[in-house]
Amino acid sequence: MWKKAEFYGVVAQAQDVVPGFKEGYRKFEQHVVLRGLSQGLLTNYGRNVAHLALHFGRCPESISVEEINSYLYYKAVGDKICESYIKHTVFGVRMWLRLYGKDDVAIQIPVMKKSHTLPEVLSKSECKELFKAPKSFKHRFLLAFTYSTGMRLNELRFVKISDIDTDRMKVRVRQGKGKKDRYVILSQYIKTRLPAYLESYKPEIYLFEGNTAGHEMCERSIQNIMSEAVKKTNIKKHASLHTLRHSFATHLLEDGVDLYTIQNLLGHSQLRSTILYLHIAQVLPKSAKSPLDTLYNF
Description:
Elements: H1 4-17, H2 21-34, H3 39-56, H4 65-78, H5 83-98, H6 124-131, H7 137-149, H8 153-156, E1 164-165, E2 170-176, E3 180-185, H9 188-201, H10 219-231, H11 241-254, H12 259-266, H13 271-275, H14 291-295
Antiparallel strand pairs: 1-2, 2-3
């Protein structure tokens, strides 16, 4: 994962070194913000466009399509850069060029063999071991809450105390991926421990606040909580906070929850993203029965 410092570093470097990049990037950033696109998109696109500009010493609108395609091919084949990096570069450059009236530039995405890797998933016993590993009650509560809801990192950070509905047993996720609100499950286990957590740490607005009251905890702090907890266990898997989301979905499927429900809980816009968990879950095949027999109670 790219750190924010690395992102701002390469962008700042391009702004200092490449003539015209500072003005062009300001225009690019404004376009992203006015379209209501995410900070993550700006980070990924902006970083990769900056790398391209630094490589050639020129702004994207001054680089020929042949040069761009050669650069992409070299990155894909020579440097063996991952497919998502190539796509972010292509989409970022296309967006940049549209700002200069070059909508018809045919930038090609190199043909890359797709790798079909399955995400790492913790077993239920590993989850239990993980949740009791931290000394801090706050850290134990945070990890258990993350798993219990299946939230993404940046959804977790912005959960407000007011988003937790203990009567309806729901937690509201505000402006998740795709700028969509949704509701996820509130665990009975979490509900019983919530009063003690609130009493102990007295958060003002967000459920998980950093050192400054009323402000959400930063990404790095949450990631460190996870990584330090894993070190204290016997877990040998490469587990990040997102692993808890994968584990949540897999365990729901193994518990008999249907894919459509899991799709909605995860906030997936397309079912094919959720179908991935069919390849991970240990689900026993069920024998099929004719609907005619169930119709007449045979």
